[in-house]
Design brief:
Elements lengths: L1 E4 L14 E4 L2 E7 L2 E2 L4 E2 L4 H18 L7 E8 L5 H9 L8 E6 L9 E8 L2
Parallel strand pairs: 6-7
Antiparallel strand pairs: 1-2, 2-3, 3-8, 4-5, 6-8
């Protein structure tokens, strides 16, 4: 059985998908882009600013699912330009002091709303 996870502390889904789905003790979080849920708009700024907002959105969804970053087992980072990898990695890595999850990171041609970063995650419920 699957359960939809939703919170107003992260951007709402803008298509036929859920913020996250819980199934069999796992939480699958849809890709998050740097939209500030308070204003419903992409945050202005460089990759550091945008990655920080993405991580805040992911943290809010994890919390709504009863998890935190320590429960994340896999993530995928999509970048508009691999030249932004080091700066993104610094922000991302600040959330995983010990036992970071498995991860893939790669550049794509274009991201929604022409943002610089999108990250999706999979967590295991405590």
């Amino acid at each position: 059985m699957k359960k939809v996870i939703s919170t107003t502390n992260a951007p709402g889904a803008i298509g036929p998908y859920s913020q996250a789905i819980e199934a069999n003790g796992m939480v699958f979080i849809s890709g998050q882009i740097p939209i500030d849920p308070a204003i419903g708009k992409v945050v202005e700024g460089d990759i550091t600013v945008q990655t920080e907002q993405v991580m805040k959105n992911l943290e809010a969804i994890l919390s709504a699912a009863g998890c935190d970053f320590s429960h994340v087992v896999k993530s995928t980072c999509l970048l508009s330009d691999m030249a932004n990898f080091a700066a993104m990695n610094a922000v991302y890595g600040s959330r995983f002091k010990e036992n970071p999850p498995a991860r893939a990171a790669f550049a794509v041609k274009t991201l929604p709303l022409n943002v610089l970063i999108e990250i999706e995650m999979i967590a295991v419920k405590p």
